[in-house]
Amino acid sequence: MCSDGVHKVAKELVEDIDDANFSTTFKVIEGNLLKEYKEFKIVVKATPKSENSTSLIHWTMEYEKLKEDVPEPFSVLKFLVHLSKDIDDHHTKK
Questions:
Q1: From the CA atom positions of the chain, what is the Rg in Å?
Q2: How far apart are CA 28 and CA 6, in angstroms?
Q3: More confident residue, 24 or 87
Q4: Spatial CA neighbour of 61 closest among 40, 37, 83, 36
C-alpha cells in the first residue's frame, strides 16, 4: 500500500474466524500503520448469493486515530478494492 509516496506496512494477526457468519477479523500488530492509528482491524465477510454460487464480499475497517489530524485510511481502502478485483479476476478466469 502506498499513501502520499509512503509505503504502508502492516503485520496482521488473525484475531477471529467466524464460520457461521463467513467472516474473518485481522488485527494489525506491527508496522507503520500503528504510527498513525492506535488500533486497526480489518473484517472480511462473505455473503453467499445463492447455494453453490458466488459470494458478495464486505470489507470493514475499524480503527482509532492517534491524533485528530491523521488522515482517513483511504490508501488501505484502495488496496482492499484492488485486492478484491484481483481475486474476482482469478476466480472468473476460464
A1: 15
A2: 18
A3: 24
A4: 40
